[in-house]
Each structure stands twice: as structure tokens, then as C-alpha cells.
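writing this on my phone so excuse typos. first protein, seq and then structure
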Amino acid sequence: MDDILLSDEAYEILKRFASSSSLPDSVVNTFPEQCLDQLFKYKLISSQITDYDLTSPYIKPIASETFITEKGLGYLSSRQSGQDQYDLLKSMADSAKRQALSAEQQAALAIQNAKSAQKEARISHIHAIISDVLAIIAIIISIIALRYH
């Protein structure tokens, strides 16, 4: 981690991420972009989508959270000691738990979206069959009409 060179401001922001489970977009957007770029570049923080707009024709993200990564916690750990180190290790364990829970929630959301897509596919299939049946009926009616005229 000796090759990571953070500005003082980026370091302070990283410490802020460490003191919180995750930060919403509204908070993250207040930080200077160049500091966030540094933290993302070195993979000291990461972002994950937390909510999707399921009402649109395409699934699109509408909210995300940004959190410190294990690497970010390790970087802070290398710059701190004593009680801070203990707190940081506890924070690392909590972060791992949060990330596992978030991954579980993402998986549940993906399953829900897949079921919804499957349901829509079934409805579209039924509509296609109905259209085919109506087309066949129209052809039969046309043939009958031609025979009697």
C-alpha cells in the first residue's frame, strides 16, 4: 500500500467512509470529484446499486450506496495504531457483513426481476398465440366469403 498516495482531503473522506456503514448518493455527491476519483482509482471505496426503477421498460438503477472496501480499511489500518486499529478491524468485519447482506439483497432483487421477466414473457407468448389464432380465423372467414360470392 506504499504506492497509494492520497491527498489529505481524500484521506479525510476515506476516514469518513470508515466511520459509516455506507453513504447515500446525496452525501457522496457533496465530496470533491477528484478525491472520489482517487479513492475509486485505488479501489479504496466501491459503489453498489441499491434500488431499481421496475416501472420502466428497462431496469434502470435509481439509487446506490458507496462504502469503504477491505482494501480501504487496510489502507487506513496501515496509517493508524492502538485502539484505532482495533476499531478498524471491527469495522472491517462489519463491512464484510454489510457487503454480504447487500449481495444477498441484490440476489433477491435479481431473482424477483427474473420472475417478473418470465411472467411478461409468458403473457407475450399467450398474446402471440391469440394473434395467430385470430389470423387463422380471418383466413378461414376470407375463404368462406370467397366461396359464396
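second protein below, same order as before
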Amino acid sequence: MRSTLRGYQEAVRLFCDYATDPAYGWAAECERRFGTHPIQVCHEWNTAVHMQECEAEAPKRAFTRDELQAFFDHADDEVSRVRGRGRKGWLPAFRDAMLFKTAYAYGLRRNETRMLDHGPPAGRRTTRPPATRTRSTERRPRAP
């Protein structure tokens, strides 16, 4: 409910900003037509403020720092647990842990994370060097 109230207050504040901005001339027009001019009525002291760090519902809110650290620690522990059993599966667990950290560090969305390029499958190494861009028109300046 608080966020809805703040949304309404923000709409009124933005309209008053528009109506009182000299660039648009509404203050002079209102003075001419009505004998008075508009003023800003929404100020810090008379509007609702944020009371919490995040007011979104629990399923939609961002992790706190402690929750995020616990999540990353769990992903790392999962790699150690799977690898410690001496069975297959630790490499995908490691990949997932790195993917979570990369997505968070660079602020990637789900689709951007899904579209990340990856190297060749494990065990298959390519003998070709990576492709590089070169410009045939670029030349070094000659020494005089």
C-alpha cells in the first residue's frame, strides 16, 4: 500500500514540476486566466518515505548481502561435495557456481546468461588459434 501511495505522490509531484517549469509557460498562463499560479505541493516533509530497504514481496525481492553470500557458499560447497564423492558431476556443478557469480557480477538477465558463449566441450581442445580481427587498411606510420 505504501508503494502505491508513493506512486500517486510522485505523479502529482511530476505534474507540478511540469506546470511550474518556466520553460512551458503554464505559470504565466494560469496567472493570466485565473489570477494565481501553480506551485509544487509535494515536498520531502509531507510525502511518504521508504521505510524498508526493499518493499517488494518476498518472492520478488533481491537477495540481501548475507543471503547472496550464503547462496554462493552453498554453490561452492556443492562442488566440493560432489567432487569429494569421486563421481562424475563436479564439473557441471563448478560451471553452475561460476555462472551464478558471473551473472550476478555483470548484472546479466536470464536470457543474457543463457546466451553466454562457452568454449569447446571438456576433453576436446581445438588446435586453431582464436579468430582475431585485423584491418588490412590500418598501417603503422613510417618513421621519418
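The radius of gyration is 29 Å. thats all i got for now
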